[in-house]
Design goal:
alpha+beta, two-stranded antiparallel ribbon, elongated, 39% helix, 155 residues, 5 helices
Length: 155
């Protein structure tokens, strides 16, 4: 039969408090002690004159945890292999590149629904999964560029 040796160490909280106080400049009153994970947490507060006359008032503890920011994937469209025809500033003030596949596909006038389908097809052909807003972005910018080109030719 094997025996097990168990060592017990018992330290009073007041001794731990005195040890911590000797190393750090802490407020007067120890209000709470908790074990969180592998840490012993001591809560201190300043002594108020008003509280000493009224008696003890419960303190509401607020646990602060570091919040990690969630990693968000940036919505970038793959445009590899597409030639940039022009760089313009669109009507919303954004700087944008106009790509050749869109210019070639949207030169001839088509209904708006067909234009959207063409733009979506071009984006998907390059391995993208375009959202409705991305399709609108490329469509609007290309149509704006083509309109600017027509205005320059007519002027």
């Amino acid at each position: 039969m094997q025996g097990e040796v168990l060592t017990l160490v018992k330290i009073r909280i007041s001794e731990i408090e005195d040890l911590v106080r000797s190393k750090h400049n802490l407020p007067e009153v120890l209000t709470d002690v908790q074990v969180e994970g592998d840490s012993l947490v001591l809560y201190f507060r300043e002594k108020n004159k008003i509280e000493s006359t009224r008696g003890s008032i419960k303190i509401q503890k607020v646990k602060t945890r570091k919040r990690r920011r969630t990693r968000r994937k940036r919505n970038r469209m793959k445009t590899r292999g597409w030639e940039v025809v022009a760089r313009i500033r669109n009507s919303k003030g954004q700087r944008c590149a106009i790509y050749e596949p869109f210019v070639e596909a949207l030169k001839q006038p088509l209904p708006r629904a067909d234009q959207k389908l063409i733009v979506a097809k071009i984006l998907k052909s390059n391995g993208n999964r375009p959202s409705e807003s991305s399709i609108e972005y490329f469509l609007e910018n290309t149509l704006e560029y083509l309109k600017m080109q027509r205005d320059q030719i007519s002027a």
